[in-house]
Design goal:
The protein is mostly beta strands and 192 residues long. It is built from one helix and ten strands.
């Protein structure tokens, strides 16, 4: 007699956020899910559980069910080696204190046998930042432009360095080459 590999799926889920969480602002979450094995995963159920202080605004696609703080999607089957994503916009309560921690949980399930179910659940844990604080980032080389420099259109050359520290792909990256017209130079760090 011989040993035969049983067909299996290998589902995984990952949550990430576009920006730091700030009280009284919106945040965009990315829920990514995949089937890394060679068999189709049948009848998927996806859940995203929002913590206290965070409320659902919209998503693409829209949830099939909203039950309190839990959003559910029933996307059907997921082919072998396939991946999908859901964009979710949430609103953070104005009363959230800077430094408080929020945990968003995502879960993917299927009745299909899963080769490794330890990655079917993911928690995104992030701190709430003060609305006036800059995004948490490392400063590498620093050039300070004054309000006068900005008004005169002085160029600023810079290098952006990115590192994906998550388990999933970094799918959305936004780079702008000019300041938004509504932002005042006096609000920039180092402005005079």
């Amino acid at each position: 007699f011989g040993v035969k590999d049983w067909p299996a799926v290998d589902l995984n889920v990952h949550l990430s956020a576009q920006h730091a969480f700030r009280a009284d602002e919106n945040a965009l979450l990315y829920l990514q899910y995949a089937n890394a094995d060679d068999q189709q995963a049948d009848d998927l159920t996806l859940e995203c559980r929002l913590p206290a202080g965070m409320s659902f605004s919209w998503s693409s696609p829209w949830p099939d069910q909203i039950a309190g703080d839990t959003l559910r999607w029933y996307p059907g089957n997921l082919a072998a080696a396939a991946h999908q994503s859901i964009n979710i916009q949430v609103a953070l309560d104005a009363g959230l204190a800077a430094g408080s921690s929020l945990v968003v949980t995502a879960v993917v399930e299927s009745p299909s046998p899963d080769a490794s179910s330890n990655d079917n659940r993911h928690e995104l844990q992030a701190n709430v930042w003060d609305s006036g604080a800059p995004e948490p980032a490392k400063e590498v080389d620093r050039t300070i432009l004054t309000a006068t420099d900005i008004a005169e259109g002085k160029p600023l050359e810079f290098t952006l360095r990115f590192q994906n520290q998550g388990a999933g792909p970094a799918t959305v990256l936004v780079i702008e080459d000019q300041l938004d017209a509504v932002k005042r130079a006096s609000l920039l760090k180092g402005a005079e």
